[in-house]
Amino acid sequence: MNTQQLTGHLDLALQLATSGLPVLPLRAGKGPVGNCRTCADNACGGRPNMKTPGPCACPRPCHAWAAATTDPRILTSPAWAKAWRDTGTVGYHPGGAGVTVVDLDDAGAIAWARQTLPHTRAVATTRGEHWIYSGITRSVNGVRDGVDIKSTMSYARWLGPGTGTLAELPDVVRALAEKAPSAVRPAARVAVTVPAPAGGGECCHRSPAYLERGIAMAEQRITNACSAIHNTVYGTFLAVLSAHGRCGCLTEGHITRLFTAAQAKGESPRHCSDAWSNARTALGM
Question: What pTM was computed for the model?
């Protein structure tokens, strides 16, 4: 890839990020790029095609949908330089942008969509079309012949703005996505044992309201995140445990509230549990 191509991909990514679209670099084969030495060649343990982040301990999740961001400082950082050199195209996280892509892979799928789905913004692809709707849902491949749904915890290639007016996500698409148990569901109840502090385990907080404000602020931080959701969830869990994890007053109800907020942004129960466990490990709990 020459310098002109590199500049073109990065310039496009910055332009899309400015419009609120969380973006990430993709290889020529459409797979996400590992953006650090730890995750080069998928060494961190994600799935072989790198569509799912592994147990990455980087400052920020550096590949797959979790890396998508609107922050120009990250996009232009030295840590991402190799990613842009390896880039074949620019991708984006539909769920992070508040949209769902119905990926129609062939003429039969397009014919089905025209008969079944409301008209919306359409983008031509190599083999078919992307139909884009306002609203998010679960991402599922193969919901019918030639039809994939890309929204939360997924990514899509940027192929241009498309044509047509963006329509609301129809119930028929939501129904297709919910044939299997949804990844966005009430948080699993997780039993967490927090070590008691030295000095008899007495809580050092000024009042119960201090903890309540902390949990409410953590929920709001997750809810307000528009990119790097996985990293935001992990960072929030780390902050909560650092402030409240050793005094014994953090309850299962508090944890459930945090997990519910994370899953509403597209995190799976497994990713929530992993983030919580990794935060506890980082703090030596």
Answer: 0.60
Cβ atoms of 122 and 85 within 8 Å: the answer is no
Which tokens belong to 154? 């997924």
> How far apart are alpha carbons 112 and 107 in whole angstroms?
9
Q: pLDDT digits over 178-226, tens only? A: 764 433 344 444 443 333 333 334 556 656 677 788 888 888 888 888 7
In 3D space, the residue among 99, 103, 98, 95 whose CA is nearest the CA of residue 154 turns out to be 95
Which of 212, 223, 193, 121 is CA-nearest to residue 163?
121
In 3D space, the residue among 96, 98, 176, 186 whose CA is nearest the CA of residue 141 turns out to be: 176
For 179-212, b/e burial (b = at least 16 CB within 10 A) is: eeeebbeebeeeebebeeeeeeeebeeeeeeebe
The helix (H) or strand (E) run that includes residue 92 is strand 89-92
Q: What CA–CA distance (Å, rounded) separates 268 from 202?
A: 34
